[in-house]
Specification:
CATH topology of the largest domain: Topoisomerase I, domain 2
Structural class: alpha+beta
CATH architecture of the largest domain: Orthogonal Bundle
Strand content: 15-25%
Low-confidence stretches: 423-430
Distance between the termini: 94 Å
Helix content: 25-40%
Mean pLDDT: 88
Largest sheet: 6 strands, antiparallel, barrel
CATH class of the largest domain: Mainly Alpha
Number of helices: 18
Number of domains: 6
């Protein structure tokens, strides 16, 4: 008869551990949390010291009964839930709800699921860490207070079913603010010039114009480019200087949760949740010929620390595989970022001898991809830096200086094992080439000058991985929360993922607007980061969890009471003018948010109660004919713009701009004004010749000639009673114009 019950979280992990332990042990899974706060009430008695009302989860009653039955049949219980705050809380709940009061129970931590690790842990049993439990409990109560107090405010302001969250709403804010940066971005024109040159031996190469009179050269437009090209064509080209230098590139540290998520996204396009799901299966165990083996260490970590025995093993492997010349004299150690919990090792293979090639037949395609980058990154982290030889040639032409460079790997080092995917902001190693025979003072022949127009680009939209990177850098959330947070803002339709990029929806933008206006501190990056630090201090035993909750709740409750008084004002800030008149009373019809979403209502409410659903706009027919197939063109309405599309779509995909019959007012521009919408649905008017013409107006335009300068169109004032000229800035009253 078994003497000990071992309780883990997942059935897969239970299966693996069961194979390592003998007949004296029973291994069962809790399936995660077994108790939680009730779903339909707040479940926290604020007046009684924030006492939580935990109940057994409905879908876990059978599991709890089975665990209780198993516990009664053994002498003691070992709690082997995941080695983090969440796992500690689960162990505590199991101890209080499954294990008998007089029955001994012990806590073990498993950073990796291997036979040695499991047996060592069982032989070194400990106790539940109540500081970790209290940190998790404080987080759960904070999140419940925010969710259950703020979400109803959103329901009353917009419509039911919306949610707010202490971390999720800050993640949403990051996405919305990045989108606003992109919408507000005004591209700037710039040019570069490349010269195709050749030596006396007719060896051709390329150089880029860099300086004039020793200063960096900025070419703002095509006219400036033409002047420079004309000058360069009349000048002799000579090699002024050739310089060579060595550059070392150090290996990257082994993965932590966020960097693994970023790498999997960059290499394979994996969503954050997918990466974590795959990593979980590698951690819990895979069937190999020698038995079930956990292939990697715990995958929720913010530490780059590695166990000494693992470093010793990988150094032995590197020396045998690539030679001692690739091994540094001392192990490489990497600094863990400030504020990290440092509770677990970095993510690494449990056994370095389990190479990706040796496991190919035992892993699925996605498992092999994740295991391969983990294995290679870890092995590379304990190897010498790569070394490059970089040669740079400076070419003189009068007052101008051109440059070209070339690089060669002279020592591969860690590149034998692993090469990172380059991410934004990382330094590029020069990859261009020029003839090795090139020497100083050599005359050169100019074959061709190639000008190129460019425009500055707005900041990139977040991907799931780059959002995780930003959250980590700002101290928002922790490794165990990233995937869930990003899933939540997408499942709520606050954010869409399109071709790997995250974009806030109109709903997400409005929810963010309400939350930031109503709770500027609560949903700020700084407040959320400070709260994470306080939770870390609770875990470390440096702060009392009830004190943290008390200091949070007072100001939060006051802010909630204050903002409820401004609910009407906030609700009105979301109203949009449709441009239509009410057919019953003649007053403007407005788009409002109600309990079922958006609808159209008369602004004369409550005197006039005319309303109707906000229906999807149907394609409008036009007199235009498709110049490709001869079919009628129709007006298409999409989220960001109106345009003309062929009525035979998808058989014919021809499109044309939707013209308003208004000419661009910018002098010399032959463009037409087109109606566009921002990503969040706000209408604006811009020139069809963009980006050559950057004219844009947030307010409506009319095809009325300016009586002062003759410009073909005017911009309507915000009140609709005045009109201004973009060209000469004259202002006219409504009665002075002819539309």
């Amino acid at each position: 008869m078994a003497k000990t019950l071992v309780i883990v979280e997942s059935p897969a992990k239970a299966k693996t551990i069961n194979k390592f332990l003998g007949s004296d042990y029973i291994v069962k899974a809790s399936g995660g949390h077994i108790i939680d706060l009730p779903a339909k009430e707040i479940g926290i008695d604020v007046e009684d010291g924030f006492k939580p009302n935990y109940i057994v989860m409905k879908d876990k009653k059978k599991t709890v009964a089975e665990l209780k039955k198993a516990a009664k049949s053994v002498e003691d219980v070992i709690l082997a839930t995941d080695p983090d705050r969440e796992g500690e809380a689960i162990a505590w709940h199991v101890a209080n709800n499954v294990v008998g009061k007089k029955q001994p129970s012990y806590r073990i931590l498993l950073n990796q699921i291997t036979k040695k690790a499991v047996l060592d842990a069982v032989n070194n049993k400990g106790e539940i860490d109540l500081n970790k439990v209290n940190a998790q409990q404080a987080r759960r109560i904070l999140d419940r207070l925010v969710g259950y107090k703020v979400s109803p405010f959103l329901w009353k302001t917009m419509f039911s079913g919306l949610s707010a969250g202490r971390v999720q709403s800050v993640a949403l804010r990051l996405v919305v603010e990045r989108d606003a940066e992109i919408d507000a971005f005004v591209p700037e024109e710039y040019w570069d010039i490349k010269a195709m040159l050749s030596t006396k031996k007719d060896e051709q190469f390329e150089a880029k114009l860099a300086k004039k009179n020793g200063k960096a050269l900025k070419i703002n437009n095509g006219d400036e480019s033409d002047v420079i090209i004309k000058e360069l064509k009349s000048l002799p080209f000579t090699v002024d200087k050739i310089s060579k230098k060595k550059k070392k590139r150090n290996s990257s540290p082994p993965f932590i949760t966020s960097t693994l998520q970023q790498e999997a996204s960059s290499r394979y396009g994996f969503a954050v949740s997918r990466t974590m799901r795959i990593a979980q299966t590698l951690y819990e165990g895979v069937d190999l010929p020698e038995g079930t083996v956990g292939l990697i260490t715990y995958m929720r970590t913010d530490s780059t620390r590695v166990a000494p025995e693992a470093i010793e093993d990988v150094r032995t492997y590197v020396s045998g595989k690539w030679g001692a010349e690739n091994l540094p004299d001392k192990p490489n150690y990497f600094k863990t970022k400030k504020g990290a919990q440092d509770a677990h090792e970095a993510i690494r293979p449990s056994y370095v001898e389990h190479t990706p090639e040796s496991l190919k037949q035992f892993l699925s395609g996605e498992q092999l991809k994740i295991y391969t980058v983990i294995w290679k990154r870890f092995v590379g982290s304990q190897m010498k830096p790569a070394e490059y030889s970089i040669s740079t040639a400076q070419i003189g032409a009068g007052d101008y200086e051109l440059t070209t460079s070339a690089s060669h790997v002279v020592f591969k080092g860690f590149l034998n094992a692993y090469e990172d995917v380059k991410t934004d902001g990382e330094e590029e190693i020069a990859q261009s080439e020029f003839p090795k025979t090139l020497t100083e003072k050599d005359p050169l022949s100019l074959n061709e000058l190639i000008p190129a127009q460019h425009f500055t680009k707005p900041p990139a939209r977040y991907t799931e991985a780059s959002l995780v990177k930003e959250m980590e850098a700002r101290g928002i959330g922790r490794p165990s929360t990233y995937a869930q947070t990003i899933n939540t803002i997408q499942s709520r339709d606050y954010v869409n993922r399109d071709k790997g990029k995250l974009q806030s929806t109109e709903l997400g933008g409005n929810v963010n607007k309400i939350l930031v206006q109503g709770f500027p501190n609560l949903f700020s990056v700084e407040f959320t980061a400070n709260m994470e630090e306080e939770l870390d201090k609770i875990e470390a035993g440096d702060l009392e969890w009830l004190k943290v909750l008390g200091e949070f709740y007072g100001p939060f409750s006051d802010a909630l009471e204050k903002i409820n008084g401004k609910r009407k004002e906030l609700k009105e800030s979301l109203i949009e003018d449709t441009g239509e008149k009410c057919e019953k009373c003649g007053k403007p019809m407005m788009i409002r948010w109600g309990r079922n979403g958006k609808f159209i209502a008369c602004s004369g409410f409550p005197a006039c109660r005319n309303t109707r659903p906000l229906e999807k706009q149907e394609d409008q027919t036009t007199d235009e004919v498709c110049d490709k197939c001869g079919s009628p063109m129709v007006v298409k309405n999409v989220r960001n713009s109106r345009f003309l599309g062929c009525s035979k779509y998808p058989d014919c995909k021809n499109t044309k701009p939707f013209l308003l019959g208004i000419k661009c007012p910018v002098e010399g521009c032959e463009g037409d004004i087109v109606e566009k919408r921002t990503r969040r649905g706000k209408v604006f008017y811009g020139c069809s010749k963009y980006p050559e013409c950057k004219f844009a107006s947030w307010t409506r335009m009319v095809a009325s000639e300016c009586k002062t300068c003759g410009a073909p169109s005017l911009i309507e004032g915000k009140n609709g009673e005045s009109y201004s000229c973009e060209r000469c800035k004259s202002i006219f009253t409504k009665d002075e114009i002819t539309v």
